[in-house]
Amino acid sequence: MRILIYVPTIAIDRGSGDSRHVHELGENLSKLGNEVGVICRLAGGSYNGLASIKRVKSPNINIVSWFWASIYGLFLGLVTTKANKYDLVYTRAGVSAAASLVSRLTKTPYVTEVNGLIWEEVRISGVRWWRKAFGYFLNWIEGKAYRHSQHVVAVSPQIKEVMVAALGIKPEKMTVIPNGANTDLFKPMDINQARRQLNLSGADYFVTFVGNLAAWQGIEYMIRSAPYILKGYPETKFLIVGGGAMKQGLVELAQRIGVSDRMIFTGMVPYDKVPLYINAGDVCVAPSVKERVGSPLKIYEYGACGKAIVTSRLPGLEFIEQDKLGFLVEPDCPKELAEAIMKLLQDPELRKQMGENGRKCIVENHSWESVARRVAEVCRQALENYTRQP
Predict the structure, then answer these.
(1) 58 and 126: one domain?
(2) Same-domain pairing of 242 and 319
(3) SS3 for 90?
(4) Which of 37-46, 52-61, 97-106, 270-279 is predicted least confidently?
(5) In whole angstroms, what is the distance from residue 79 CA to residue 274 CA?
(6) Could you tell me if residue 166 is inside a domain?
(7) Are 277 and 311 part of one and the same domain?
(8) Domain housing 379
(9) If you write DSSP's letter for every residue of 25-79 in order, what string do you get?
(10) Which of 73, 187, 205, 317 has the most CB atoms at less than 10 Å from its CB?
């Protein structure tokens, strides 16, 4: 198949969760024998990969950049789809309305992937009223585009349920395909070697979080769990890897509750360095808030690195306990989060066994290759259904 991945507002080489997803999907679809093009932004000047890149150039000014990338990306999508005769357009929530227009004007079917619900993220984020109003307007437009998609891929069962109930998407028109991990890049390594490379103490315990510092990630509950943990394990440090709008607020929270000396905020790190930070930790956490819907990419990367996991009890994450990869805790509950982390800190054998279970589970069921195979099958079926329509 000739597949155009249409994500004009995403910088595919940036290293964030959405860019990693697009990058890995494009590369693995290409490895499966598909001819893949990607319309996207580039944070750097070049891209080395199997997929063919059509770069959307835009000014680096937040909202201006988004609007410009959307408009220029629409033009580039029309020209590229026509010129290269792509069989299908694969897009993501946030730009599916533009992909719908490309689809109609070029008579090409499109499939939309939904990684999160726009109105939920807007509501949780606590942004200004005008950004909230724009978010709800974008959600209304995107809802129409979802209904016109040939098929919709949801990364979690909860997203599918909400879209069926709230947007009237037919269940048979949706497929759940969770996120995955690059099991060649994210793999176990010696914890002491990882710490030496990062200049971290070999004597301390490290509790690690990796991801964008956004409201739905629940990092504040990790910080609030620290006093409980430090009572029993005063040598513990908390490694918070990533950047985002909430960083300053989280730093101030740590100062207010007296644990700032135990927190290490690294800011954004290169994608190929993320496995080092994960491997340097004793326990890895994803304390998502209860309103969060999605399939946290970090969960699969933690597991691929062979690390025991503590995360929130949310739909789609049941396999964490079923396959004994770690513990699920009630979201928004610092004390329960702390208790689960301490269970793992006090039991090295349990951490080791859960890490081994995690590596096995991710390699067998959640590699990006397996995700790409399922996406390719959805695209193939969507294309067949489209060609049968009058």
Answers:
(1) yes
(2) yes
(3) strand
(4) 52-61
(5) 36
(6) yes
(7) yes
(8) 2-180+367-388
(9) HHHHHHHTT-EEEEEEE-SSS---SSSEEEE----S-HHHHHHHHHHHHHHHHHH
(10) 73
Structure tokens at 22: 């697009």
Assess whether 264 and 331 both reside in one domain: yes
Residue 139 makes CB contacts below 8 A (sequence gap 6+) with 117, 118, 119, 122
Domain count for the chain: 2
Q: How far apart are CA 104 and CA 171, in angstroms?
A: 23
- Looking at the fold, whether 357 and 373 belong to one and the same domain comes out as no
By three-state DSSP, how is residue 168 classified? coil
Tell if the pTM clears 0.85, that is, is over it. yes
Tell me phi and psi for residue 268, to 5 degrees: -65, 140
| Crossing angle for the helix pair 17-31 and 297-304, to the nearest 10 degrees | 70
CATH code (residue 310): 3.40.50.2000
Strand partners, 52: 37
Residues 381, 315 within the same domain? no
* CA 241 from centre of chain: 14
CA angle (368 as vertex; 294, 21 as ends), nearest 5: 50
In which band, very low, low, confident or very high, does the pLDDT at 61 lie, cut at 50, 70 and 90? Answer: low
- Rounded distance, CA 362 to CA 300, Å? 6
Angle at 309 between CA 303 and CA 310, to 5 degrees: 155
Q: What is the pLDDT of residues 1-30, one digit of tens each?
A: 999 999 998 988 877 788 889 999 999 999
